[in-house]
Design a protein that fits this description.
With about 350 residues, this protein is of the alpha+beta class. It folds into two domains: about 10-125, Gcn5-related N-acetyltransferase (GNAT) (Aminopeptidase, 3-Layer(aba) Sandwich), CATH 3.40.630; about 165-330, Gcn5-related N-acetyltransferase (GNAT) (Aminopeptidase, 3-Layer(aba) Sandwich), CATH 3.40.630. It is about 30% helix and about 30% strand. The protein has eight helices and twelve strands. The chain has a twelve-stranded mixed sheet with strand order 1-2-3-4-5-12-6-11-10-9-8-7, with helices on both faces. The mean pLDDT is about 95. It binds coenzyme A. The site of coenzyme A (COA) has 22 residues, from helix 1, strand 4, helix 3, strand 5 and helix 4.
């Protein structure tokens, strides 16, 4: 197909908040586009379920605009999700976009991007950040990257996707002197909310950002509580490990893994951070190993943990390699300044 045979689609807005049967079905079809695109392009899908997306709608610090490309006979064949932060990073929008393989190269992606740019401008934002993903080893090609480039996006960071077979992890590293490791199943204690907020603030700037035009996230204890409550409503399993610096009594490092209800065998590594002043003692490896041990006890159905790390994040990649992670694909961040 070429532009001489453009697809006859209409771009409409859908919403997870819809309560009427037609609106609910349309939202589910829209969610399914992301799953079908990922399964087609990488063999599996890490996209969120409709239920999870509905739960996060009730979020004081974010809002969403969901666009669907619908054919004349009513089929949703393309999808774009725009995620806007309200308290920080109010200059940008995070975009997820996909077109079903059978409908590509007919201008639908371009139509969606044009609408995305209109909505982005309408909200007074200047930066669009999106990503492409692909599976395979170092030599595999980022096929959709060409789309991003042609539409004026710039390649700002590439990450490795790694999978860890939790059944074979067999390491028991020493805990560095001067620290205690504390692990939790489910929501971590609210007594630590201030320290956790500080760790998440640091996380937003201290992990490598490549060329991403992102600023510090404004975490505080109230935002931590609200995020914890949302996670509970989502029904995600959660294990975390923290390092407490014994001299100061403060939490100085953390790592977290989540288990979506829809994929009880595949868990997802979330943030891991050791504050700069406490790096170089092996806390990262000790924390991750402790967290995997808790995960195995609490969620015996989990077989693999999946994680993404920027290629320049050599310390984190070294920790993951030491645990036994193997490369399962790649992800690239693309950015456009309007
Ligand atoms: C990327 C994606 C959304 C493009 O959707 P699409 O409807 O095929 O895009 P369009 O037809 O509007 O393409 C617009 C232009 O992008 C370029 N392009 C799109 N796909 C391309 C590819 N695979 N290789 C080379 N160029 C490509 C072309 O210049 C195309 O114009 P042309 O058809 O006149 O040559 C789709 O391939 C997809 O869903 N990929 C997986 C999800 C993804 O990577 N999303 C993030 C994208 S930044």
């Amino acid at each position: 197909m070429s532009h001489s045979d453009p697809a006859d689609v209409t771009i409409i807005e859908v919403s997870g908040a819809a309560t009427d049967p037609e609106g609910r079905a349309r939202f589910e079809e829209w969610v399914e586009v992301f799953h079908r695109v990922q399964r087609a392009d990488t063999g599996s899908s890490d996209a969120w379920s409709a239920e999870e997306l509905r739960t996060v709608l009730d979020n004081p610090i974010k809002f969403f605009v969901d666009l669907a490309a619908v054919t004349a006979d009513g089929q949703v064949v393309g999808a774009a999700e725009l995620i806007f932060q309200r308290e920080d990073n109010t200059h940008l929008v995070i975009l997820n976009i996909g077109v079903l393989p059978a409908f590509r190269r007919r201008g639908i992606g371009r139509r969606l991007i044009e609408e995305v740019e209109r909505v982005t401008r309408e909200h007074g934002r200047r930066t669009i950040i999106t990503e492409t993903i692909w599976s395979g080893d170092e030599g595999a090609a980022d096929v959709s990257g060409e789309f991003a480039r042609r539409l004026g996006f710039e390649d700002v960071q590439t990450s490795r996707r790694s999978d860890l077979d939790v059944t074979t992890v067999a390491i028991d590293p020493d805990i560095p002197t001067g620290y205690a490791i504390e692990t939790h199943v489910g929501t971590p204690p609210q007594a630590d909310a201030d320290d956790r907020a500080w760790l998440l603030r640091r996380m937003s700037t201290d992990a490598p950002l490549g060329g991403l035009d992102m600023e510090e996230q404004q975490w505080d204890a109230a935002r931590i509580r609200s995020a914890d409550e949302r996670m509970e409503r989502m029904g995600r399993g959660r294990v975390s490990a923290f390092a407490r610096h014994l001299e100061s009594g403060r939490l100085v490092a953390f790592t977290e893994i989540q288990v979506p209800a829809a994929s009880p065998d595949l868990a997802y590594q979330q943030d891991t951070l050791v504050l700069r002043e406490h790096r170089g003692h092996g806390l990262g490896l000790a924390l991750k190993a402790a967290n995997i041990a808790v995960l195995r006890d609490a969620y015996p159905g989990v077989e693999r943990v999946r994680t993404w790390n920027a290629l320049e994040n050599s310390h984190m990649l070294a920790v993951n390699d030491a645990l036994g992670c193997t490369t399962s694909g790649f992800e690239r961040e693309w950015q456009k300044q309007l």
